[in-house]
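Please, is this right?
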Amino acid sequence: MMGNPVKRPTRPAAPRDRRRLLLFKLQRAPTALRAEEGDFEHYFARGLGVAVEELRVVETVRGEEAPPPGEVAGAIFSGSDAMVTEPTAWMEKLRQWVRTALRERVPLLGVCFGHQLLAQTLGGRVDWNPGGPGFGSEQLTLSEAGRADSLFAEVAPRPLFQLWHQQAVTRMPPEAVLLAGNARVSVQSFRWRDQVWGTQFHPEFTPAVVRGYTRELSAKLPKLGTDPKALLDRLEDSPAGPRVLGNFAAHALGETRSHDDEAQAGK
């Protein structure tokens, strides 16, 4: 006689930490700049208006394991010294994580290299930018979709941001919507569905960070067609950067925070 089947205890799914963002830190700032301004987790924390400890930071490049996508509220992918067109094992690992995150509807934001990695993973194309490298402060133009997008809420139609890149997204992924561009880089920002955003510009960079990179690479920049002094002379503040980061955080965390609240939290 067969009795009732034994019910095996099920392991509950790991709860998503709705109050925490994951930062994929894909490079480290130069030593001198770290001493003055901190590293990438500090730039993003300041832009987001949170303490560094509130971010979950993972250095995939150095072999650190990321938590499952379902355990975080959202993820940010930083810039990198690496090139998307020169694939590595850690890049493929990131792509696998992204594919899982897409299935689980986790909000994602890619910055510079991260922007390119997300675009390529979604079916877009990345190459050396036809308009040449971009370093320092540049003004962009938001598209009609960009002006209506939550990422650029309360951002002027022609905002200024900091850039530091050589490659770019040369073809957006299928279903992607252009949010911003300029004469040198046609795809400065895109959105894919209502889950993924990419920015070629660095919303976390301040003029001080750009100055630090310029000093570090002053011998290399002329070979890339950039005059370091001219770059420094045209640097301007970019208050829209923290706004963009705050807008993404509000979406990922499912809340509405004022920019004043973010500024107070970052003090």
Summary: The first strand starts at residue 17 and ends at 24.
